[in-house]
């Protein structure tokens, strides 16, 4: 964990926080950010990459891994332009912090520390997550892959989920405070990040209006964010047989509606807009997904891991655009959203509507950020956008005026429920004497 002396605060720093940065996509995001930042941002800007992990050992290993990557990148720049290494070395700073999303107090502790030690934040990438799966239905997997290869490895129906999983208690038993169950997959994938975004909103808002840029919260969703899995009567998915997918649908619905007039008032409260001034700008929430990448989110023995990678590459060669396969390519959409000029994003949204951005590749593995269909909403909530058929879930239905209205209504209900839950948990932790006050 960073001690106060080694917390980097360079002039003209661009501050990005990535959760779950020690493995899989999180590590891919860190490396790609370094590459693209050095290539696209002016020499006067420095990147401060704040990585969160669950323990010090993982944090140290992550920093070492990123430093090694940086050395390689700098060496390759130096070969092309001798002398540039001196400049580049001083443009990337690393910092590590502890975060366990299954502990709301851990989220509060980290945010309090960041608020006390960090001048501002530019981007928070909410990447960490768990699958909550207990295994794979192998006969079904083999049958599905052999009969509809690309669909089977894009929208798999053979993962078996744990049902009824709840997070460990948030309040020590000796405090004798009753607490309701908190869905484990819900808390790790969504609710922990939800609180994180709320407490970090004041740091993300620290962009004077004149800068014409906004702090960004980037939520990481999935292709598997099916509409039918989100049950508003069990929004935490505790009784669901697809709790992972339910958290991803919740992510899509809430991120997209966060920017729309029907929900904006609740989202403004969440984004702590009470102190808005000329010196601040309301942060934005964006939603992304990495396509399909081979990571340990599905734990497999080595031989099956090789087979998984093979199945993913074959799917790409059979025409699936959603198989980046490697995490550096899977990180494309998140890093693009993190570094894109605000005007670019705003203009695209004005033209195409608010949507979900995924990492896609062509046959040769050339990656790009690509709009992705969201059930009931479409690609941008506009009518007449169904020319874009590529990359659709084969069971997707065209969005209609009615479905878009249902989407907005669901978004509002979800936002109201999440705000209620946040305030309720904050009060409970405070009353138990374990909650951390922010100021
Ligand atoms: N891989 C894909 O094809 C794919 C597809 C769609 C979406 N995604 C999304 O991409 C994100 C990253 O997944 P991945 O595939 O890279 O999986 P991964 O390799 O298993 O990485 C997950 C990361 O999340 C961290 N994490 C898990 N539980 C946590 C908690 N309670 N508190 C803090 N950190 C926690 C893990 O830390 P530990 O090492 O400490 O466990 C790890 O760093 C997830 O949100 C996932 O849903 C992945």
UniProtKB/TrEMBL annotation:
A GO biological process held by the record: ergosterol biosynthetic process
GO cellular component: endoplasmic reticulum membrane; lipid droplet; mitochondrial outer membrane
Top-rank lineage group of the source organism: Eukaryota
Listed transmembrane segments: none
Family: Belongs to the short-chain dehydrogenases/reductases (SDR) family. ERG27 subfamily.
Name under which the protein is recorded: NAD(P)-binding protein
The keyword Glycoprotein appears for this protein: no
Assigned keywords, A-Z: Lipid biosynthesis, Lipid metabolism, NADP, Oxidoreductase, Steroid biosynthesis
Species the sequence originates in: Cucurbitaria berberidis CBS 394.84
Gene Ontology MF, one: 3-beta-hydroxysteroid 3-dehydrogenase (NADP+) activity
């Amino acid at each position: 964990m960073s001690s106060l002396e080694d917390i980097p605060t360079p002039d003209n720093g661009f501050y990005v926080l990535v959760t779950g940065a020690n493995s899989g996509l999180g590590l891919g995001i860190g490396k790609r950010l370094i590459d693209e930042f050095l290539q696209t941002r002016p020499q006067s800007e420095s990147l401060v990459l704040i990585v969160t992990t669950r323990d010090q050992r993982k944090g140290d290993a992550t920093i070492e891994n990123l430093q090694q990557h940086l050395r390689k990148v700098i060496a390759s720049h130096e070969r092309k332009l001798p002398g540039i290494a001196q400049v580049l070395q001083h443009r990337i700073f690393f910092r590590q912090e502890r975060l366990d999303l299954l502990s709301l107090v851990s989220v509060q502790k980290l945010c309090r520390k960041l608020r006390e030690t960090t001048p501002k934040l530019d981007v928070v990438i909410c990447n960490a997550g768990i699958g909550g799966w207990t295994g794979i239905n192998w006969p079904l997997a083999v049958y599905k892959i052999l009969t509809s290869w690309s669909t089977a490895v894009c929208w798999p129906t053979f993962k078996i989920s744990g049902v009824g999983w709840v997070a460990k208690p948030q309040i020590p038993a000796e405090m004798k405070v009753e607490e309701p169950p908190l869905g484990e997959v819900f808390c790790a994938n969504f609710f922990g990040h939800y609180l994180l975004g709320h407490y970090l909103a004041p740091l993300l808002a620290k962009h004077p209006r004149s800068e014409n840029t906004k702090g960004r919260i980037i939520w990481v969703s999935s292709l598997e964010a099916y509409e039918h899995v989100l049950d508003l009567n069990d929004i935490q998915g505790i009784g669901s047989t697809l709790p992972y997918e339910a958290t991803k649908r919740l992510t899509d619905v809430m991120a997209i509606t966060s920017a729309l007039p029907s929900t904006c008032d609740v989202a403004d409260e969440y984004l702590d807009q009470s102190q808005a001034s000329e010196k601040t700008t309301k942060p934005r929430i964006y939603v992304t997904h990495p396509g399909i990448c081979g990571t340990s989110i599905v734990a497999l023995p080595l031989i099956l891991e090789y087979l998984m990678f093979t199945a993913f590459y074959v799917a790409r060669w059979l025409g699936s655009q959603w198989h980046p396969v490697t995490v550096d390519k899977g990180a494309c959409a998140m890093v693009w959203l993190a570094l894109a000029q605000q005007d670019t994003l705003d203009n695209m949204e004005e033209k195409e509507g608010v949507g979900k951005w995924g990492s896609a590749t062509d046959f040769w593995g050339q990656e790009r950020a690509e709009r992705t269909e969201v059930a009931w909403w479409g690609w941008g909530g506009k009518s007449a956008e169904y020319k874009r058929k590529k990359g659709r879930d084969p069971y997707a239905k065209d969005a209609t005026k009615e479905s878009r209205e249902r989407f907005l209504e669901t978004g509002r209900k979800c936002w109201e429920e999440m705000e209620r839950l946040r305030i309720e948990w904050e009060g409970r932790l405070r009353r138990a004497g374990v909650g951390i006050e922010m100021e």
